[in-house]
Specification:
The complex is a heterodimer.
Chain A: H1 2-16, H2 18-44, H3 47-67, H4 69-79, H5 82-87, H6 95-121, H7 130-157, H8 161-177, H9 190-198, H10 200-212, H11 224-253
Helix pairs in contact in A: 1-6, 2-3, 2-6, 3-6, 3-7, 3-8, 3-10, 4-6, 4-7, 4-8, 6-7, 7-8, 7-10, 7-11, 10-11
Chain B: E1 4-15, E2 18-29, E3 33-37, H1 44-51, E4 59-64, E5 67-68, H2 73-79, E6 80-83, H3 95-105, H4 110-123, H5 139-151, E7 157-161, H6 169-184, E8 188-193, H7 196-202, E9 205-210, E10 213-218, H8 220-226, E11 230-236, H9 242-252, E12 265-269, H10 274-285, E13 289-295, H11 299-307, H12 319-322
Parallel strand pairs in B: 3-8, 3-9, 6-7, 7-8
Antiparallel strand pairs in B: 1-2, 1-4, 4-5, 9-10, 11-12, 11-13
Classes of the chains: A mainly alpha, B alpha/beta.
């Protein structure tokens, strides 16, 4: 209950702060335009084909960036005294954190929704059933919520929100670019292919391709069911490592 | 028998090698105002954070409104309101939204939370600004909103941690009158400040702390007499009258008069009739003056009087804020 009131605060702030909102809406749009229209012809031989290939990966990248926002926000609350206010109220210790995570689910949903909508506007087409699309969105949000504990941990430990931002990018960049987001993995050098294969983001992207546009766009020899299992396993690993660390860091502050 | 709304004994707290609190006792009877006076880094904020359940002491006990802050923090939190050094309002929400959110977190219904918010905005003269984002507020308005936010749940104990630091004198007077209103309503207040003037204006009792220790505890009157009371300053119109004024002030003062500037004479005085006697004597002697004032000792002078040394180093202030 308290968490829901605080989740509403997160959402209100998100709507209020257009610059924060822009990072979930405009960024995917720009990414899509840049990658599809500038690189599309060179990489896939045609923008339309490349759009089908790249959009699922771009959405995953977007949601990874949005899952890092939570640490920045928590750090800001910590530094400007808003956390002290919450802590002096008779609410459960976990409510501010739960509220932030719950509010973030709205952020993720908007980010995915906007990216998909924009994709459709510039020519992206679903080749799968509606329930597969819904499942894709849910799976992405589950992954984002599993990943956000890294950001919570960084947000609790870092000295400034700027530092949280910087460190978050350090986490996100190797995960997104060292994956099959923009080019098929088999075109990459061998050493990089090793990383790409174990990178959970690759499996998220492959699952998205399978669920949004069909198996034709997945890496050769990969299987949708296996990819989804990989994603769920990565979520379990992420949560079992970073959730305890993040809540430990949070408890020290709260 | 006196019931204490706040009772702390032997509180200690260290941050690494910094001993923020070296064992302090604080007692505030119900419905009274305790002024905690001390320089930056004295441990004021640390003490408030412990009493507000935000920080655990290394040792010692504290009870607020009858609830132990360590073993019954939830009950203690229901009784307290906290206003920090910096105004801890959410800048991206409006004044109304800030107060309604806190009301909802205190389990008021949506309707009651809105009513309480409107009532507080009215009381703190923020009704017109209620629908604006808090980030557009002036410093004084933010303090008022912050104070309003700490009062949503009708707390019986309110902590005001340097509520006027950084405010201009007019805004400071606003905050003072709000504190007086609060006390008139029966609320117990613990106020930290760096200004003796503020503690004198608001507090029933003053505890002076330095380097995490209590170095004096008294009523404002008792403390002032302990410090040599107030200082009387006279500036004669004609500088030729300076020797006469010096002689007159030597009669009413408790020490030898000093010359803070070349045309002023200052002397510590005790007793309430010093000013009247001085005016009478100046009139008898026919001395015209351009300045005649009574002022309280500054924090520096308090510390000099209590510890016999100049004001302590301000190096440790951020203690509470970063902890």
């Amino acid at each position: 209950m308290d968490a829901l009131i605080l989740a509403r605060r997160t959402v209100t702030k998100m709507v209020r702060n257009p610059e924060q909102f822009i990072d979930v809406t405009l960024q995917p749009v720009l990414m899509t335009v840049i990658f599809v229209f500038i690189f599309g012809g060179a990489i896939a031989g045609g923008t339309e084909q490349y759009l089908q290939f790249a959009l699922p990966g771009i959405i995953v990248q977007t949601i990874m960036f949005t899952s890092m926002t939570i640490g920045v926000n928590l750090n800001t609350d910590l530094k400007n005294g808003v956390f002290d206010r919450f802590r002096s109220l008779p609410i459960s210790r976990s409510a501010p954190l739960l509220g932030a995570v719950t509010g973030d689910i709205v952020r993720h949903t908007i980010a995915v929704g906007v990216s998909l909508l924009f994709g459709v506007l510039i020519g992206f087409r679903f080749h799968t059933a509606w329930y597969e699309v819904v499942f894709a969105v849910v799976l992405m949000i589950v992954f984002a919520v599993s990943l956000c504990w890294i950001s919570v941990l960084v947000g609790m430990l870092a000295r400034s929100s700027g530092a949280v931002q910087g460190l978050s990018f350090l986490v996100v960049f190797p995960l997104t670019f060292g994956s099959s987001t923009f080019v098929p993995a088999d075109t990459l050098p061998d050493w990089l292919q090793g990383w790409v294969a174990v990178n959970p983001v690759t499996h998220v992207i492959e699952s998205m391709r399978g669920l949004l546009v069909g198996a034709d766009y997945m890496a050769p020899g990969s299987d949708l069911g296996t990819e989804i299992l990989w994603v769920l396993a990565s979520c379990v690993v992420l949560v079992s490592v970073f959730f305890p660390l993040a809540t430990w860091a949070y408890r020290r502050k709260i | 028998m006196t019931t204490f709304a706040i009772e702390a004994h032997g509180l200690t707290k260290s941050f690494g090698s910094t001993h923020a609190l070296a064992g302090i006792d604080l007692e505030v009877p119900e419905g009274r105002v305790l002024g905690v006076l001390g320089p930056n880094g004295a441990g004021k904020t640390t003490a408030v954070r412990i009493l507000a359940t935000l920080l655990r002491p290394d040792s010692g006990t504290a009870r607020v409104a009858g609830h132990d802050v360590l073993t019954e923090p939830a009950a203690a939190r229901r009784a307290i309101g906290l206003t920090g050094q910096y105004a801890s309002v959410d800048e991206d929400l409006t004044g109304v939204e800030n107060l309604v959110m806190i009301g909802r977190l205190l389990h008021l219904s949506a309707r009651d939370a809105r009513a309480r918010a409107a009532e507080l905005l009215e009381q703190f003269e923020l009704t017109d600004a209620g629908r604006r984002l808090a980030k557009t507020y002036s410093g004084g308005m933010r303090r008022r909103l912050d104070l309003a936010a700490s009062l949503v749940g009708h707390p019986s104990v309110v902590y005001l941690d340097e509520p006027t630091t950084g405010l201009d004198p007019a805004k400071r007077d606003d905050v003072w009158s709000m504190v007086r209103q609060l006390v008139a309503g029966g609320t117990t207040v613990l106020l930290t400040t760096q200004y003796l003037e503020e503690a004198d204006a608001l507090a029933h009792e003053i505890t002076v702390i330095d380097h995490g220790r209590v170095i004096a505890h008294d009523t404002p009157l008792g403390l002032k007499s302990q410090l040599g009371g107030q200082t009387l300053v006279v500036r004669p119109t004609d500088i030729a009258d300076l020797p006469t004024v010096t002689r007159l002030l030597a009669e009413v003062g408790t020490r030898e008069p000093e010359h803070p500037s070349e045309d002023q004479v200052a002397v510590p005085v005790a007793g309430d009739d010093a000013l009247v006697r001085t005016v009478a004597r100046l009139a008898e002697e026919g001395v015209a003056v351009t300045e005649l004032s009574l002022r309280l000792p500054s924090l520096d002078e308090v510390f000099y009087a209590l510890t016999g040394r100049a004001e302590s180093d301000p190096a440790l202030e951020s203690e509470g804020a970063t902890a």
